[in-house]
Amino acid sequence: MNSSRKHHLKSLMLSIAKGLLDEEEREHEMKKKRYMAETCTPVCMPRTMQELQEQCKEIHCNIDKIDEERYDLQMKVTKSEKEIEDLKFKVQDVLGKFKKPVLKKVRMTADAMLKALLGSKHMVNLDLRANLKQVKKDVKEEPRTTVNDDFLCPVVHIATMLVPFFSTVWVKGMSKVRGISSMLVMWLGAVILSRQ
């Protein structure tokens, strides 16, 4: 479709829409005039004081009725607005919560974060390591007891050969025997300590 045809169609649509709006406005004015003619009777000025008081009473009664109707309509509107809000929440629960936006990772120190949150009021330094006490620990060297290397070498050699064997033993299709290797290590430790 070329541009002149698009322009022609656009102007045609605008003219039709303008005609519809004018017609709707005329209809609205006619309805307004009919309503005013029905509800507001032409004012006739009373000649006596009693007629004037009666007319004032009628006007006040009409005002009270209209005010009651207005209040009832207002209550209906507020009730329907509450129902609409409740239904919106229910729809949101059924369809799922709104998606949380993916937050970017920002490297910030604790000081920078507090400064961003509290503004220039933040003057406290959060260097918690500065507040710690310095503790000096005296390390005491205990003399180690030596084990006879001649005895230890064959025992360690046997243990390294037996540990894989004991850790993979199967008992009649049941689970692996556990704890045999740890029992072997404990036994070897007891033997080593008894030799000292």
Automatic annotation (TrEMBL):
A Gene Ontology molecular function term of the record: actin binding
GO biological process terms held by the UniProt record: cardiac muscle contraction; skeletal muscle contraction
Highest taxon above the source species: Eukaryota
UniProt entry keywords in alphabetical sequence: Acetylation, Actin-binding, Muscle protein
GO cellular component: troponin complex
Transmembrane portions of the chain: none
Cross-referenced Pfam families: Troponin
Quaternary structure annotation from Swiss-Prot or TrEMBL: Binds to actin and tropomyosin.
Family from the record: Belongs to the troponin I family.
Its job: Troponin I is the inhibitory subunit of troponin, the thin filament regulatory complex which confers calcium-sensitivity to striated muscle actomyosin ATPase activity.
Protein name: Troponin I, fast skeletal muscle
Organism of origin: Takifugu flavidus (sansaifugu)
Record lineage: Eukaryota, Metazoa, Chordata, Craniata, Vertebrata
